[in-house]
Design a protein that fits this description.
Blueprint: E1 28-32, H1 35-49, E2 57-61, H2 67-75, E3 78-82, H3 93-99, E4 104-110, H4 119-125, E5 132-136, E6 141-142, H5 146-149, E7 154-158, E8 171-175, H6 178-181, H7 198-208, H8 211-217, H9 241-244, H10 247-269, E9 276-278, E10 289-290, E11 293-298, H11 301-313, H12 344-352, E12 353-357, H13 364-376
Parallel strand pairs: 2-3, 2-4, 4-5, 5-7
Antiparallel strand pairs: 1-8, 6-10, 7-8, 9-11, 11-12
Helix pairs in contact: 1-2
């Protein structure tokens, strides 16, 4: 096959508009140069809120992006990992409770591929511990009510390549009230070196993500497309102006495309085999929430490998995401880890997960081909 469908990433038409700081009301808005920087700022806020804690700790899910550790390292907080519930993309509620200590200042609840964590349940369990609930929504977005979708005290967004609002850079920290917003850190530098403008990056992305170009890019291993690795955060700088000016119109464009994305997800949801688990798609979400990719767990190891290899060789944009739990990723900062628990459910989740493309470029014929392979391959 000479063409390939990229796993993720929406193409947004260049349409600059002034950034309305009230766009995400009732949340306040503070932009940063990346989603990692936005999370680091949220963690620094958590430290300021609990100045009496000498060696602050935060709780993270055991299966997640290593950028979370980059933010923790920069913010100067130590990390405790929590295992998943079995066959679910959520942290174990009982383990969260058992991992809290007098040094714990925050819980980072990750919105996995657009499936929000059970934040209200977590909050009810830890009410007496005076913890900040940080909702990492780098992978999740909604075109509906933000207060219905986001339940954290603080929410962090990413506008990086491959995210729901894929603007090739930038991030934001949203606070539920002005009191929290006042605790956000100052910038290390006023300006962010954005390199190429959004318009230029967008043109490059449009060209390289065409099926023919993307096929050949996937054949160049030194590019590391889709690779998972730890990268340290160097500083906190402002959201680039060219990214800020594209947010409003990109939200509008995402809203216009939502029905197509929902249709793609519905086609995937009809894939049924006794060894395939469809992950739950909603908790507190509205019908306006966006899935970054469509996730499946394939519980039979040999069938999973065969299915994934055939789908991958067909160029249909499948991905295994991080493939490993976070403590097994190379070069992570060991000095900030309080311990290294086994995390059996997260390990199993990482091994079984396969994600299917769900972006503007995914068409009905792609979903039909994917479904055909998955339904017929045994």
């Amino acid at each position: 096959m000479l063409t390939a469908l990229r796993p993720v990433g929406n193409y947004f038409r260049y349409d600059p508009k002034p950034l309305d700081k009230n766009l995400f009301s009732p949340f306040t808005f503070q932009g940063y140069q990346s989603g990692t920087a936005a999370l680091a700022a949220a963690l620094m806020l958590a430290k300021k809120k609990r100045p009496e804690v000498i060696n602050p700790e935060v709780i993270l899910p055991g299966y997640s992006c290593p950028d979370l550790l980059s933010a923790c390292k920069y913010a100067g907080v130590n990390v405790k990992f929590v295992d998943f519930e079995q066959n679910l993309p959520w942290m174990s509620l009982s383990e969260i409770e058992s991992r809290i200590s007098s040094s714990t200042i925050a819980i980072v609840a990750v919105n996995f591929l657009g499936i929000p964590e059970r934040i209200e349940q977590i909050s009810n369990r830890v009410k007496s511990a005076n913890l900040l609930i940080i909702e990492d929504s780098a992978q999740g977005f909604t075109t509906g009510s933000y207060s219905d979708y986001w339940k954290g005290d603080v929410v962090t967004l990413s506008f990086g390549r491959g995210k729901p609002l894929s603007l090739f850079g930038g991030g934001a920290t949203l606070c539920r009230n002005q009191e929290l917003a006042s605790l956000l850190p100052n910038f290390d530098n006023e300006e962010s070196d954005g390199g190429l403008s959004f318009r230029s990056k967008n043109l490059v992305f449009k060209t390289l993500s065409s099926p023919l170009c993307y096929f050949w890019l996937t054949k160049l291993p030194f590019l590391g497309l889709g690779s998972t690795e730890y990268k340290p955060l160097e500083n906190l700088t402002k959201l680039p102006q060219d990214v800020a000016s594209q947010i409003v119109s990109s939200v509008e464009q995402l809203r216009a495309k939502l029905a197509n994305l929902k249709r793609v997800a519905e086609n995937y949801r009809s894939i049924e085999k006794d060894y395939i688990i469809n992950l739950p798609q909603t908790t507190n979400t509205s019908e306006n929430s966006v899935l970054l990719r469509y996730p499946l767990l394939i519980t039979d190891d040999s069938k999973r490998d065969k299915l994934f290899n055939e789908l991958a060789s067909s160029g249909l944009g499948v991905s295994q995401m991080y493939e490993r739990i976070i403590i097994d990723i190379d070069n992570i900062p060991q000095e900030i880890l309080v311990d290294k628990p086994d995390l059996p459910n997260a390990r199993q989740f990482a091994r079984q997960l396969v994600t299917l493309p769900n972006h503007f470029g995914t068409r009905v014929e792609h979903t039909r081909k994917i479904k055909k392979i998955m339904m017929e391959k045994d």
